[in-house]
Specification:
four-stranded antiparallel beta sheet; 21% strand; elongated; alpha+beta; 2 domains; N-terminal domain of MutM-like DNA repair proteins; Helicase, Ruva Protein, domain 3; five-stranded mixed beta sheet; 305 residues
Amino acid sequence: MGTSGASRYNQDEVSDMPELPEVETVRRTLNELIVGKTIQHVQVRLPRIIQKPDDTVLFEELLAGRTFQEIDRRGKFLRMVLDGIILVSHLRMEGRYGLYEQAEPVEPHTHVIFRFTDGSELRYRDVRQFGTMHLFAPGEEWTSPPLNKLGLEPLVDSFTLEAFRAVLGHRSSKMKPLLLNQAYVTGLGNIYVDEALYSACIHPERTPDSLTKQEWQTLHQAVVSTLSDAVRQGGSSIKSYVNGQGEMGMFQQQLQAYGRGGEPCKRCGEVITKTVLAGRGTHYCKQCQRMKRARKRVPVRSKQV
């Protein structure tokens, strides 16, 4: 399959790729491909990718001889566990990992190469050069940036309706920018926020105080189900995303709102509106996702005796 469906999406619409489902798919793929492999040598070709330590030679030395034990995920970050050290990696807009044989030509924009003792190589390629890598002593990653700044993880048991409302319910911003804020709920980006709000029939400019108890429950369920469905489909290949084996995701084939500006709503037939909210391309149905304001509370006057 080629890049079917990718051409309709503008650059402002892919700025959040990859999101949680894509990173989770990469995590699962890398667990199959590199766990148990031992690093013989690391070559850093673009020093600014390495955020910690600030010495790329030290980065290379600290990883030499280490074995990958597990690939974990927190939000949009990969947490790569090796014996005695943790590598935290963010793919940003177009970062990708791939496993190659040492003899295979190195593609342009390949910035970090992990050569294994078995002759294979894990290569990190990033056309936009926005990805990051941090090294930590085990346990230090949870108390240091960037992981210590992340909010609720939406695909775990602790992501309850009560926790969701406690984080967002008292805030005054509009729902879409709130859901995009990684300090509140982590892993959501432009694609899945648009899809979750559409699924829950909630206008992206609604504020938390305008949502009913039932709407909170519906939105919570929509966030979980949208992300879960996308994970099952291997994520969304909107522009250039592929997993560690070079395979595209398939969730883009069932998008209901995102990227469908000007097309009919699949529920009611109304034209999907595309606008810009908080600097992001935003897609919604005016009929299904009607704008509602919070009801003003009338102060109760005490009776005069």
